[in-house]
Design goal:
The complex is a heterodimer of chains A (528) and B (325). By secondary structure, chain A is α+β, with helices and mostly antiparallel strands. Chain A has 15 helices and 19 strands.
Chain lengths: 528, 325
């Protein structure tokens, strides 16, 4: 009897697979997993993009990353950014049929700031949310913040009633012993709902028939599979088993383009890759120079800036897929970027500067580098070792997997590095984030400069950064940002290298929108 | 006899403790799990709170003691990445690994025995030479290379078979999923099973060949021939049966390593089993998954060896005498 039942199940499975074959199914494979369906658990690009299919923020970002309305139809900024009024969209329904109201927003504002949330910084601590009516919210702040909503496109609003009924009123803590309901189930307002989710194996999305917005895709189903192995992912695309992969390894781009089934969609990414120096310790941890720290000398830092040939790194290591950068922020994110030029590559002048600084024969330093975090990161560091050898600096490279690398160089590891490579995308897509987190002086007890691993510090820049945060006038603000970056460049506190390129592999019958923040958003996908 | 059994069991427990200890020491060098769990702009106070809540600030002996105590209760904690109980994750993935491992073992045994017998009986034929050459390839090429070659030939160039995943699966009884009942599931199984089983297949083939050649030279085969039995009865009724005894022992012992070494095959074919889960856990410093998986594989080997030792004890009279003494 049980054999009969199994047979029936098999027939049913056959029947189902043949039905879905007629519908438009987009099969998508990514290097990374979709780990938890709770949108407050992990602040990471791939995860944010997945959740963006199901959940929505009060604001949204369009194809060009411009901020537009989301679940809030419109908003007013009063008192220079101290008081905000949000008008919420009416007639929006959660996937389970409940109506979306102001209560959900207030619930989400509390939930996102609870312990266990990875998105604490999305909503300022001092922001007070008040319900005016079912579709109007007032937010008041202690100090003005004109860019408060910059990251609200990925502060996803979750339903109050459903979360509370399913024991998910608080974010899933990492030390939880029982799985939380919201980590395995979802209920959003977005264009897709999740039909099935097997963590780390497969997730199936179906369109939301009651979506409030315009349907801009022609899909009936999205099947997502994580494929961590590069060769397997590329093979799956070339054999036509998946329609979209992210990322395509640089060395496989030519092969994918040469195939008749797929092509590579490449473009600049917002992340800036740069080098930093330990400018805090009186003696470097890993150097033959004793009793002083060569990186405290401006001339040494300038020499490094001149000795590194960004064009060669682009041509040889990145195979043309990078944009050499003079600034610590991507040109797409700061309008004044074009006024900054790369320093001339000049090893002779760099040598002279080193001699003036008292190192005519160079010196020795350690260098920390991840080898599985950014595009060709290990090879970039090797190229830099060679370039610095030309000016007499002997670099002892320590390239390791990201887990070990970050444990050594970040704050919890005690910033144990002399010279390092790091990448940074400002979460707010705004210069202030870079000026505060990377270029700001490290101050014990505040988050300022926490990711400034080398401890570069200029008080004048910090003063400007504080003014930039509260300045509401865009022209004045841009002028101040420009001044701050000019200071940073004069100090040569960092060596900006480049913006790496995005490379997505897509089947020839698929159309996608590639946004520079590397979010693969399939609600703009079309498949023939 | 009882004393022997107890001694062997105690030895096994000691081995498991050693595995746990080595695994635990290793975790100190795989990196900081916290960095994989938070975004790069997470405030440090939140990071510190997370670290404390996971008990990562406790001294190492305390952490080890807690780990052993929980392991005794089959409690391996929550995965750092998925925020799901590790036992649940492993249980979900186990059917995939076991189906793959048993298919690979079956393939290795069946094909290995047929090829071995052929090579022993038709030693000088061209086909036997070809089999020998193939077996050399199987022994010398690393698994991941074989896997990638198969993918390129059969999935990318010919497009006959899928390159990754498990196809459609059918749930049975709520605790098992099988790919045996769907066409895509069976098709997905072919390449990974060949990749995983190839090494064992060549091993079995060479073993069968030499054993069979040995048996063919023994007196009772000559007497059988003298009695006028058919060649078929001699080869398969008498010679093969005697050949298979050591083969089955080896095949049983190898099953453990097939399951353990499925990690590489699972990664190349993106097969959603326990090995792939383990490899991703290593990349993400997901210590609870790593710990549970290592303990599970350790237990598997210890159990297999224990059973083999006990079986030998029952079968071999010389060992029985030694036990009594």
């Amino acid at each position: 009897m049980s054999i009969k039942r199994i047979g029936l199940a098999a027939i049913a499975a056959f029947a189902l697979s043949s039905v879905s074959a007629q519908a438009v199914t987009l099969r998508y494979a990514n290097q990374g997993d979709l780990k938890s369906l709770d949108p407050y658990t992990l602040n990471e690009t791939t995860t944010l993009a997945h959740h963006g299919h199901v959940y929505e923020g009060l604001t949204s970002r369009g194809r060009d990353l411009k901020i537009g309305p989301g679940l809030a139809e419109s908003w007013e900024i009063l008192e220079g950014g101290k008081r905000w009024i949000f008008k919420l969209r009416k007639n929006v329904k959660w996937h389970n049929g409940d109506a979306f109201t102001a209560d959900d927003v207030i619930f989400s504002a509390d939930r996102v700031r609870m312990p266990g949330s990875n998105f604490n910084t999305r909503v300022p601590k001092d922001a007070k949310f008040t319900k005016i009516d079912d579709h109007t919210i007032e937010v008041t702040l202690a100090s003005p913040n004109p860019i408060m909503t910059a990251q609200w496109d990925t502060w996803y609003i979750v339903p109050k009633k459903w979360s509370e009924a399913n024991n998910s009123a608080a974010p899933t803590p990492a030390s939880a012993t029982t799985p939380s309901y919201i980590a395995l189930n979802s209920n959003g307002t977005g264009p897709f709902k999740i039909e099935s989710h097997q963590p780390g194996v497969k997730t199936v999305f179906k369109p939301n028939p009651n979506y409030w917005g315009k349907k801009e895709h022609n899909l009936d189903e999205i099947v997502f599979t994580p494929i961590p192995n590069d060769a397997t992912r590329v093979a799956a695309l070339l054999s036509g088993e998946v329609d979209v992969i992210e990322p395509v390894p640089i060395q496989d781009i030519a092969r994918v383009n040469a195939s008749d089934k797929a092509k590579v969609l490449a473009g600049p990414e917002l992340r800036t890759i740069f080098l930093g120096f330990d400018q805090v310790r009186d003696e470097l941890l890993e150097s033959n120079v004793k009793g002083k720290n060569p990186f405290k000398d401006l001339k040494v830092r300038q020499a490094f800036n001149m000795a590194i040939d960004k064009e060669t790194i682009k041509a040889r290591v990145m195979r043309g897929l990078s944009t050499p950068s003079a600034l610590m922020i991507a040109p797409e994110l700061f309008s004044g970027s074009k006024d900054f030029k790369n320093p001339k590559f000049d090893p002779e002048a760099a040598k002279k500067l080193l001699a003036e600084a008292g190192y005519p024969n160079g010196f020795e330093t350690g260098m920390d580098c991840p080898n599985d975090r950014y595009v060709n990161d290990g090879q970039i560091c090797q190229a830099i070792v060679g370039m610095l050898a030309r000016i007499g600096v002997k670099v002892n490279l320590n390239a390791q997997p990201k887990a070990q690398y970050f444990a050594k160089v970040l704050k919890p590891g005690g910033y144990k590095t002399s010279f390092y490579l790091l990448g940074w995308t400002p979460g707010t897509l705004d210069s202030h984030n870079v000026l505060y987190d990377i270029l700001g002086c490290r101050v014990e007890g505040t988050p300022r400069g926490e990711s400034n691993l080398g401890g570069y510090c200029n008080k004048k820049l910090d003063e400007l950064t504080d003014k930039i945060l509260v300045e509401a006038d865009a022209t004045k603000r841009d002028a101040m940002i420009k001044e701050a970056f000019t200071i940073a460049i004069a100090d040569a506190g960092y060596v900006p290298l480049h913006q790496q390129a995005l490379a997505w592999g897509i089947a020839k019958n698929v159309e996608l929108v590639q946004r520079a923040d590397n979010q693969v958003l399939l609600y703009w996908a079309k498949k023939q | 006899m009882l004393a022997f059994v107890i001694r062997r069991v105690l030895q096994s427990v000691a081995v498991m403790l050693a595995v746990a200890m080595i695994a635990f020491v290793m975790f100190r060098f795989v990196g900081d799990p916290i960095n994989q769990m938070v975004g790069v702009d997470t405030p440090q106070e939140e990071v510190a709170r997370l670290r404390a809540s996971l008990g990562l600030n406790d001294p190492a002996p305390v952490q080890f003691g807690r780990f052993i105590w929980n392991a005794l209760h089959f409690e391996f904690g929550t995965s750092y990445q998925f925020r799901l109980p590790v036992t649940q994750l492993l249980a979900e993935r186990a059917p995939a690994t076991l189906e793959l491992a048993f298919t690979a073992a079956g393939f290795a045994l069946l094909v290995g025995v047929i090829m071995g017998v052929y090579c022993a009986l038709r030693r000088d034929s061209v086909l036997a030479q070809v089999f020998q050459a193939v077996s050399l390839v199987g022994v010398s090429l690393p698994t991941f290379l074989i896997g990638i070659l198969l993918i390129y030939l059969f999935a990318v160039i010919l497009g006959w078979l899928p390159s990754n995943g498990r196809g459609d699966v059918v749930a049975l009884g709520g605790w098992w999923t099988t790919g045996f009942l769907t066409k895509s599931g069976l098709r997905a199984l072919i390449l990974p099973a060949i990749t995983l089983g190839l090494f064992q297949m060549t091993l079995i083939m060479r073993l069968v060949r030499s054993e069979m050649m040995e048996v063919m030279r023994t007196d009772y085969i000559k007497f059988a021939k003298a009695r006028g039995l058919t060649t078929r009865a001699i080869h398969f009724g008498h010679a093969l049966k005697n050949t298979l005894i050591p083969v089955i022992t080896i095949a049983g012992l190898q099953l453990g390593s097939i399951i353990a070494f499925a990690i590489i095959t699972e990664t190349v074919f993106n097969w959603p089993g326990m090995g792939l889960l383990f490899l991703k856990a290593v990349q993400n410093v997901d210590i609870p998954i790593m710990a549970a998986y290592l303990m599970l594989i350790g237990l598997l080997f210890v159990m297999i060896n224990l059973l083999v030792d006990l079986a030998y004890g029952f079968v071999d009279p010389r060992l029985r005498v030694a036990m009594r003494a």
